[in-house]
Amino acid sequence: SAALTELNGQIGAFQSGSREMATLELRGRAAGTALLDISGQLNPTATPLALDIRAKAIDLELAPLSPYAGKYAGYAIERGKLTLDVSYKIEADGRLDAKNQVILNQLTFGEKIDSKDATKLPVRLAVALLKDRNGVIDINLPVTGSLDDPNFRIGPIVWKLFVGLMRKIVTAPFALLGSLFGGGGAELAYVDFAPAAAMLAPEQAQKLTQLSRALAARPQLKLDIPLHTANAADDAALASKALDEAIEARLQLLTAGTRGKPRPGSTAATVSPRSRALAELYQATFAAPPAFPAPGPADTDLEAAHDAWLEQQLLPKFAPTPAQRDALARRRAESVQAALVANAGVAPERIFLTERTSGTGPAGAARMGLKLQ
Predict the structure, then answer these.
(1) 120: closest CA among 167, 156, 176, 157?
(2) What is the pTM of this model?
(3) Residues 6 or more apart from 355 whose CB is under 8 A from it?
(4) Is residue 372 a contact partner of residue 223, using CB atoms and an 8 Å limit?
(5) Strands 34-43 and 22-30, how do they pair?
(6) Quick one: pLDDT at residue 259?
C-alpha cells in the first residue's frame, strides 16, 4: 500500500442497482514520488462489482521500501524505481481479468539483512537474470479468476505467481538465457569435449556464441567455468595419445620406407617400421624382449596380433599424471573463456575459472557444467 496525495480528477454518474458504469479519471502522486494516473469505468454498487480500470504509477522510489525488502528478500534496497501498470476488468458473471505489468528500473540491492521471513531463493541471481542491458526488469503477471470463489484473493495469487517465476528462473537460469535468442536453454548449461581434447567442436563453439550473446544482454551476470576432466574416458585417451607419440618418436629413429628387421621375439622375417618401433619401445620400457602369447585361432594377421598385445602391455605405463590431467582441464576452461570473450566481447572479469570437476556426457564425452552467478 502507498499513500495517495494531490489527487484530482472526476467521476461520472452511476445508477445503483444496475451495471451501468461511471467514467473515472484521477491523477496525483503515490508515496509522494510516483506519478499516478487512473482511468476507466466503475460502479461500486453493482453485484458483483462493475469495474474496468487501468492504473499506472510511474517511478515510485524503491529505497524507502528497504525495510520490506530486507524482511522478505533478505537484502536492503540501495536504489531503484518502480513503475506499475495494471488493468482490472470484472464481467457481469464475476469473472476477473487482470494484468499486472511491473517495471523495475536500476534495482540495486544493498547489504544483506538477517530475517527469518526472507525467501531462500537467490534473489541477486534472479535480478541479474531479469535485468536487461539498460538495467530494466519488465515482468507481466496476468491473473484470471472468479469473485464468486470464496478462496479467490488477488494479492496472494499475484505473490504466488511472482515467487513461482523467481523459482523457475533461478532453478533453470540457462533456459531464460536461451529464450532471449530463441535457442535451447538447457544446452547452454554445459560444454562437451571429446576425450583428451581441449579444442571446441563446431557445435559447441556455436553454443558458446549464443551464450556469449545472452551474457552480453545480461551484463550483471557472471559465469563460473570449472576445470573439468572425465576421469576414465580422458585417462584412456591421454594414455593412447602418449603411446602414439612415443611410437612416433621411435619411428623417427628408423629408416622410413625400408623393411625392418625381425622384432625381438618374433618369428616373422620382416615387420613394418611401426611394428619394429613398437617392439623396441616395449624392450626399452620393460628392459626385456616381448614374450608374445601363442597365436589364437582368429589371429590370421600375426603382426597385427602382436602389435595389439604390445600396445595393451604398454598403455598402463603411459597413464596420465595428475599434472597432465590438470593441464587438460585448464586448457578446456581457457578455450571456453576465450570463445566467450571473443564472440560478443564479454568482459574477462565476468568469467571465473573454478575448482576441478569430473563427469561424462554422451559417448563418454567430458561434459563441463557451467554455472551462473
Answers:
(1) 167
(2) 0.75
(3) 226, 227
(4) yes
(5) antiparallel
(6) 47
CA pair distance 107, 126, nearest whole angstrom: 12
Cell of 57: 504509477
**Rg, Å, the chain Cα set:** 34
Give the tens place of pLDDT for each residue, 227-258. Answer: 999 888 899 999 999 999 989 888 888 755 44
Give the three cell numbers for residue 102: 511491473
- What is the mean pLDDT of the segment spanning 36-40? 95
Q: 262: pLDDT confidence band, cut at 50, 70 and 90?
A: low
**pLDDT, tens only, 56-94:** 999 999 998 888 889 988 999 999 999 999 999 999 888
CA dist 162 and 168 (Å) reads: 10
The secondary structure of residue 271, as a DSSP letter, is B
On the question of a cis peptide bond just before residue 48, with omega within 30 degrees of 0, the verdict is yes
Give the model's pLDDT for residue 362: 83
Q: What span, in angstroms and rounded, lies between the C-alpha atoms of 155 and 101?
A: 14
Strand-pairing partners, residue 58, are 35
Using CA atoms, how far residue 166 sits from 120, 157, 352, in Å, is: 11, 14, 25
Sheet arrangement for strand 371-372: 351-358, 223-229, 371-372
CA distances from 141 to 98, 154, 160, 164, 224 (A): 8, 11, 10, 11, 31
Burial 7-22 (b: 16+ CB within 10 A, else e): eeeeeeebeeeebebb
Angle between helix axes 123-130 and 154-171 (nearest 10 degrees) is 90
DSSP line for 34-48: EEEEEEEEEETTSSS
Which region, left, alpha or beta, applies to residue 223 given φ > 0 means left and ψ of -120 to 50 means alpha?
Answer: beta
Identify the H or E element spanning 60: strand 50-61
CA distances in angstroms from 300 to 129, 295, 306, 338, listed in the order given = 63, 9, 11, 50
Amino acid at position 290, single letter: P
Residues 6+ apart with CB under 8 A from 45: 14, 16, 17
C-alpha cell at 355: 575448482
Q: What are the φ/ψ torsions at residue 61 (nearest 5 degrees)?
A: -70, 135
Using CA atoms, how far residue 56 sits from 3, 51, 60, 82, 290, in Å, is 14, 16, 11, 11, 87
